[in-house]
């Protein structure tokens, strides 16, 4: 019985090491994703003027309640 419990301990130790490695890789991947997202957000151009400034001034003043 001592042999089987010793093998269980080594199996659990190996699994814990594998879990730790998997978690580390996951964190690295998430950090890379965060950097890529920040780069993409930074590369988006902000509009110089609101798009509604191209519309005539009389539009958007009234609401049609009969529709």
Q: Let me know the number of strands.
A: 0
Order of helices and strands: H
Please mark out the parts with pLDDT under 50 across 5 or more consecutive residues, or reply none: none
Question: Portion of residues in helices?
Answer: 55-70%
Tell me, what's the shape? elongated
- Helix-strand makeup class: mainly alpha
| Rg, alpha carbons | 30 Å
User: How many helices?
Assistant: 1
The N- and C-terminal alpha carbons lie at a distance of 82 Å
The averaged pLDDT comes out at: 79
How large is the share of residues in beta strands?
A: under 5%
Describe the largest sheet.
none
Summarize the structure.
By secondary structure, this protein is an all-alpha fold.
Helix-strand blueprint:
Blueprint: H1 2-43
Your description of this structure?
- Helices cover 63% and strands 0% of the residues.
- It has 67 residues and is mainly α.
